[in-house]
From TrEMBL:
Low complexity composition-biased segments: 119-129
GO molecular-function terms, A-Z: DNA-binding transcription factor activity; sequence-specific DNA binding
Region called Disordered, residue ranges: 112-134
Superkingdom per UniProt: Bacteria
Natural source organism: Nannocystis exedens
Top-level taxonomy: Bacteria, Pseudomonadati, Myxococcota, Polyangia, Nannocystales
Keywords: DNA-binding, Transcription, Transcription regulation
Protein name, as recorded: Helix-turn-helix domain-containing protein
InterPro entries registered for this protein in UniProt: AraC_XylS_family_regulators (IPR050204), Homeodomain-like_sf (IPR009057), HTH_AraC (IPR018060), HTH_AraC-typ_CS (IPR018062), Reg_factor_effector_dom_sf (IPR011256)
Residues in HTH araC/xylS-type domain copies: 16-115
UniProt keyword Transcription regulation present: yes
Length: 299
């Protein structure tokens, strides 16, 4: 009987950072050697440590991540052709992609697109101490079951910069005022935080809007799943610092990883109105699952 392969805290921390980088750069031509070099280990030691921590060999894990991204794109990019999604996941034929997708999620890609499924299973449990908490974070994050959410009214910023995002919010604010707090939300894919420069999307959402959507707005939906909730009250620009801390510091130290689902931030507009948008009160929801967990338990 072989002994379990021991992985020390420093190696686990290095692997956690690499795992986030892999999720953020799935289109790079990763090999066992390039991954091992990124964390400073020889390929043999790296492969055994990776298997111990993640539960899969490195290259199989890459295939898993690419299938999870494909499942995300089927739901949140409904106009993208299935063949394109398959090619981006690394499959030359639709049939090979379909077989791999069914093995991973239990349903074919077309069914996932028609009826998106939320993630079930036990709540992930973060590990490690909360270090370097950014200003404005009011408490330690909570792991919560969040969603599903749906809205008939959302607008995507034309660019991922302050001016375009402000213009998107102005368009949303032209609608009648929300009936209650927390009906304004923002959603963006959970990538680009560890590797700046990736194309990003920022979507402004009005929840609880009961009237017919005016022209120029699009529907939006999100399935239920496990999220880490971060409650924040502070300067509006400080939200970016909070996001950076979550993805670069908190996640690698928590033994969790982000799922391929939107980061959703709920806002209390009263804080904006009282400060002329200089301060924000919000709850940031980051989709998470256990390190090595797969998105196959769908409901």
């Amino acid at each position: 009987m072989s002994r379990a392969y021991a992985v020390g805290p420093e190696a686990r921390a290095a692997l956690a950072v690499l795992l986030l980088e892999l999720q953020d750069a799935l289109d790079e031509p990763w090999t066992l050697e390039t991954m091992a070099a990124r964390v400073g280990y020889d390929p043999s030691h790296f492969a055994r440590a990776f298997q111990t921590v993640v539960g899969q060999p490195p290259l199989r894990w890459l295939r898993t991540l690419r299938l999870e991204r494909a499942a995300h794109d089927l739901v949140f990019a409904p106009a993208r052709p299935l063949q394109v999604v398959a090619e981006e996941a690394g499959y030359a034929s639709h049939e090979a992609f379909r077989r791999a997708f069914v093995r991973a999620f239990g349903v074919p890609p077309s069914a996932m697109r028609r009826r998106p499924r939320g993630l079930r299973g036990a709540a992930p449990r973060p590990q490690g101490a909360l270090q370097g908490r950014p200003e404005g974070l009011s408490a330690a994050p909570e792991i919560v079951r969040f969603g599903p959410l749906a809205s008939a009214v959302s607008v995507v910023a034309t660019r991922f910069d302050d001016a375009a995002i402000a213009e998107a919010w102005r368009r949303l604010y032209a609608l009648p005022s929300p009936a209650s707090a927390w009906e304004l939300a923002a959603a963006s894919p959970p990538w680009g935080f560890t590797r700046p420069g990736r194309p990003r999307e920022y979507r402004c959402i009005r929840l609880g809007y009961g009237e017919k959507a005016p022209p120029g707005f699009s529907p939006w939906r999100m399935q239920a799943g496990w999220f880490a909730r971060f409650r924040y009250e502070g300067t509006t620009p400080g939200i970016h610092a909070l996001m950076t801390w979550i993805f670069r510091d908190w996640l690698p130290g928590s033994a969790l990883r982000w799922r391929f689902a939107p980061v959703v931030t709920l806002f209390d507009p009263e804080a904006w109105h009282a400060s002329r948008f200089q301060r924000s009160r919000c709850a940031v929801h980051v989709p998470v699952q256990s390190l090595g967990g797969r998105g196959r338990e769908m409901s």
